[in-house]
Amino acid sequence: MFTNKPKNNKNLKYWLNLSALCVALLAASAPRANAQLKGQSIDKIIAKVDNYIVLRSDLEVAYLQASQNNQRQRPDMRCKVLENLVINKLMLAKADIDSVTVEEKMVNEQLDRRMQYMISTIGSREKLEAYYKKTVEQFKVELRKQVKEMMLAEKMQNSITADVKVTPAQVKRFFNEIPTDSLPFFSTEVEIGQIILTPKVGKDRKAEARAQLETLKGRIEKGEDFGTLARVYSQDPASAAEGGDLGFWGRGAMVPEYEQAALQLKPNELSGIVESQFGLHLIQLIEKRGTEYRSRHILLRPTSSAQDLEDARTRLDSIRTAIMQDSITFEKAAKKFSSDETTKNNGGYFTDATTNSTHIATENLDPVIYFITDTMKIGQITKPLPVRTDDGKDALRLIYFKSKTPPHAANLKDDYQKIQHAALQEKKAEAMNKWFDKTKGEVFINIDPEYSECKILQGETTMLDE
What are the entry keywords (predicted)? Predict the structure, then answer.
């Protein structure tokens, strides 16, 4: 991850796999693996870096992930994985020393994204909670420390490599130094974009939800149980199952509208109707404890009416016509009109998670996108199609099929973005090597004697290879 690669042994495929491997070593997106791995019933601390530790289970999980990303297993793979875990903890220790922090709001946003990914992978929020027998909020509590550490390590790494750049000449030299027999063969790749339009919820629908919450508030004030009504009416499945109880959260954890209203309440007091990006809330403060507070809510999410959707369809049709008549480019239209934050800043295009390239292998496409584009011709734009956004809203989208590249061996013309990414990763690895060799003597690091053959703190760092 963080070491110099011999100049006579470049392997583009290795470098293209490197980013995904780094992410896996920093922190997993899924729930933490059970420490009692097969054939190993007792977990133990195998490395300490100041106040941070590496467990044997951390190493085994990261080793399995590294093995999946590297086709040829080298004898010292486990040592290299442990070295990367130690470097990760060293970055966290230096973040403490240098007072590097991440905002709680950003941690919450990252947690939300991870939960959305897990939900989309398993099919629904309800399926996720049923499978793991815990609520999404419980997942967030368990993952919070892990995610925060990952973000701190990434922030440190970004600061260390912030000035690392590659010129076109360096990219070309990097590519020319790769042996011909080491060039990867890329499968069919496509460039596909989308413009999503989420209909605005009409005033009538909001008024209906607000009136329903006012009615529920009145029932609670007359003596009905908040928790019972939350279980029946709240459209936040995770907290509804707990009677609307969100548990304890610190300042900055909730969206501002919710937090401001909750903190103004006295214990057991009810709020007015509060609107946030998630919908309309009726909030009750349960208790305060230092800088944390515990509250519960009933959430109603007003939905778009048929007319709202039809208005959005008409607008999206107009955007499509403007693109087809060359009045505006697809890229400009996506940036100006799309409500999907993930793709709009890329001109509407989907990107490869590892290289950030707009060229994506067809086998990595979302199945829905694959089947939509399978019968399309290059340059075509679909008519408005229904789609459900990550936060569960009904929306419409256009799909644009920009290009298709047949299977081929890596070359500068078709794969410049990937090669540039690989060259940049090599230079960043060299910068991290120098930082590690310079910094490892500044903090307390202890490696279990069981791993003495790894020689992690001796000499220059070396690199995970294929």
Answer: Isomerase, Rotamase, Signal
CA pair distance 1, 429, nearest whole angstrom: 6
Q: Which helix (H) or strand (E) holds 56?
A: helix 56-69
Q: Are 368 and 298 in contact (CB under 8 A)?
A: no
Hey, what are 257's tokens? 């509208």
- 12-26 and 136-160 helices, crossing angle to 10°: 130
Tokens (6 digits) for 425: 């990763």
d(CA 267, CA 93): 39
How would you write the pLDDT of the chain (466 residues) with one tens digit per residue? Answer: 333 333 445 666 555 554 444 544 444 434 444 434 444 446 899 999 999 999 999 898 888 877 776 655 567 788 888 988 998 899 999 999 999 998 887 888 788 778 877 876 787 777 888 888 888 778 888 888 888 998 999 999 999 999 999 999 999 999 999 988 888 888 999 999 999 999 888 788 899 999 999 999 999 999 999 999 999 999 987 788 889 998 888 787 788 899 999 999 999 999 999 999 889 999 999 999 887 899 999 999 888 888 888 999 999 999 999 999 999 999 999 999 999 988 999 999 999 877 788 999 998 898 999 999 999 999 999 999 999 887 677 899 999 999 999 999 999 988 898 899 999 989 998 898 889 888 888 889 999 999 988 888 765 444 443 3
Q: Compute the distance between CA of residue 118 and CA of residue 112 in angstroms, rounded to an integer.
A: 10
Q: 412-439 vs 77-97: helix axis angle to the nearest 10?
A: 70
**Which domains are present in the chain?**
7-184+411-454 (1.10.4030.10), 188-200+305-406 (3.10.50.40), 203-300 (3.10.50.40)
d(CA 61, CA 52): 18
**Quick one: CA dihedral 119, 122, 127, 133, positive or negative?**
negative
Write out the two tokens for 240.
């509804």
DSSP 230: H
